[in-house]
From TrEMBL:
Ranges for region Disordered: 61-123, 219-238
UniProt entry tagged with the keyword RNA-binding: no
Matching PROSITE patterns: PROKAR_LIPOPROTEIN
Bias-annotated ranges (Polar residues): 103-120
Compositional bias segments (type: Basic and acidic residues): 221-234
Keywords: Signal
Species this chain originates from: Roseovarius rhodophyticola
Protein name listed in UniProt: Excalibur calcium-binding domain-containing protein
Compositionally biased tracts (Low complexity): 66-80
Record flagged with keyword Ligase: no
N-terminal signal peptide: 1-22
Length: 256
């Protein structure tokens, strides 16, 4: 009894279920979930057009655009092919107009692609690169024998300079500012020597301006009695350093 009830229920379910459609070949028969593939394409185009807000024209519809008002300048009946010659001329004219606008904006003439244009000039070589680096170029100018002769000529012009003994320094070279810098330990601005006089600042600025560098001023300062004496007023603060001369670079050079 139970077995017969189960069989009856299964038969009822099989009768109510939807048959699976054949997965036919597109454009030729039935498809999955629809009656015909061509109908499915029409429905899809209609749905896309509706979403975009455009209506799908019916079969055999004729465009209502007047000649010259379309993108290509001509209206065509649905399903017909435009003239290749006229379409090409219209596209070329539109391209020339666009190029003319670009030329006007940039200020540079536009080079139109055309078989009638002259061939571009070919750059024979880079002027910034010597032809000596090109074996073919050198080979066309001179031979190996010519190179050997040129090398011999260059060697004949060589002049060998023999080394000579270093000149001896005389004893009249003046004070050695390096030696003086290494002999001192106090900082710049520390008064070591007394200085007297009036208008010391004005005299200091006037006389220091005569020297090309503080090193030359310090050398002359030492030669004329410094640091104990300052005849030229080059050391008004009495630190022994004339015209803002600084001994620290010399001390640093020797690690002091």
């Amino acid at each position: 009894m139970r077995f017969s009830l189960c069989v009856t229920a299964l038969a009822a379910l099989a009768a109510c279920s939807t048959p699976v459609p054949d997965s036919g070949v597109p454009n030729t028969g039935q498809g999955v979930g629809f009656g015909n593939y061509n109908q499915y394409l029409e429905q899809q185009r209609a749905r896309d057009a509706a979403l975009a807000g455009n209506a799908v024209p019916g079969a055999g519809a004729i465009s209502d655009e007047t000649p010259g008002s379309g993108a290509a300048g001509t209206a065509y009946a649905a399903g017909t092919q435009p003239s290749t010659a006229s379409t090409g001329e219209e596209l070329a004219a539109e391209t020339r107009a666009r190029l003319a606008e670009t030329s006007a904006n940039s200020g540079q003439a536009v080079v139109h692609a055309s078989p009638s244009n002259p061939a571009p000039q070919t750059v024979a070589g880079d002027a910034g690169i010597s032809a000596e680096n090109d074996f073919n170029a050198v080979g066309n100018v001179r031979s190996i024998d010519d190179d050997a002769e040129l090398i011999a000529q260059n060697r004949a012009q060589y002049k060998v300079v023999q080394p000579t003994a270093l000149p001896q320094r005389s004893g009249s070279t003046g004070p050695n500012i390096v030696e003086y810098a290494l002999s001192t330990k106090h900082a710049v601005g520390t008064q070591i020597h007394s200085r007297v006089g009036i208008n010391k600042t004005a005299r200091f600025e006037r006389n220091c301006a005569k020297y090309a560098s503080p090193d030359l001023a310090q050398s002359d300062f030492l030669e004329k009695g410094g640091p104990s004496r300052d005849k030229l007023g080059l050391d008004p603060d009495g630190d022994g350093y004339a015209c803002a001369w600084d001994p620290r670079p010399f001390r640093t050079a020797v690690g002091g």
